[in-house]
Amino acid sequence: MHPARKPVMAGNWKMHKGIHETGGFVRELVHGLKAHQSPVTAEVVIAPVFTALAVALQAVWGSPIKVAAQNCHWEEAGAFTGEISAAMLKEVGVGHVILGHSERRQYFGETDATVNGRLKAALAAHLVPIFCIGELIDQRRAGETERVLERQLTDGLAGLDAAALATLIVAYEPVWAIGTGEVATPEQAQAAHAFIRGWLEKNRGAALAGTTRLLYGGSAKPDNVAEILACPDVDGCLIGGASLKAENFLPMVEAAG
Ligand code: PGA
Question: Whole domain around residue 31: which residue ranges?
Fold first, then answer.
């Protein structure tokens, strides 16, 4: 991690925990963070399901924990059954939004172009996007990792200049590591993160590349988080399974400083 970039430890709860469970769990997290001997310096973000956002926001009140949504639409309003706009999330009090997660790409037809539209809408509504990219196992085996990341960055961030992307957070999540228990090695994570930072520098300038937080995601757990966070271009983690229990999530937050 780099001292100029505040680490981010984000929990992606996916389709887990309804209103009741969220309230109790967030209170447990707030209490757990307060009980730490040294104050936690990482930015802590949790991403509950849409129906539990309001209850999560209530429960984090007065604590440093921030609340994210897991998606938003590119239009402000309209005939888009099942979708939610960035302004609607903003209205409920949400500050961050996860976009382009591989499960959205894999199961719900999300493309680089739709992610780009969602990103633009999120930024216009002053939501902090956590923009997810990453390669499939076949792409890695074929030596195409950098080509895939380059395409996802080029198309996903199209039309957004450095000023527009000032708050951007990128999550590198190799798809083969998500929910599989197979974590990228620190060397693999660092190589991908260095490539992403290099792409940002080349295409949006050194200032943005130097300040953008890059998170690793994919089977991050208490027992592997330290070595991942030790990579110079890793500024935190996007955590799925291990974010669902305080006994796993809290030590990971603590490991980030
Ligand atoms: P995982 O999920 O930590 O369960 O692998 C990460 C993610 O999907 O963001």
Answer: 8-255
Which of 8, 12, 71 to mutate for ligand 1's pocket (most ligand atoms within 8 Å of CB)?
A: 12
Report the chain's mean pLDDT, rounded to a whole number. Answer: 96
Q: Which residues contact 192 (CB under 8 A, 6 or more apart)?
A: 134, 145, 149, 172, 174, 184
Residue nearest to atom 6 of ligand 1 (CA): 240
Query: What is the whole-number distance in angstroms between the Cα of residue 19 and the centre of ligand 1?
Result: 21
Give the pairing of strands 66-69 and 96-99.
parallel
Query: Is 189's C-beta closer than 6 angstroms to any atom of ligand 1?
Result: no
Return the CATH number at 31. Answer: 3.20.20.70
> What tens digit of pLDDT does each residue of 226-239 get?
999 999 999 999 99
Residue 144 within a domain: yes
Q: Are 193 and 216 in contact (CB under 8 A)?
A: yes
User: Residue 221: which pLDDT band, with cuts at 50, 70 and 90?
Assistant: very high
Nearest-CA residue for atom 3 of ligand 1:
240
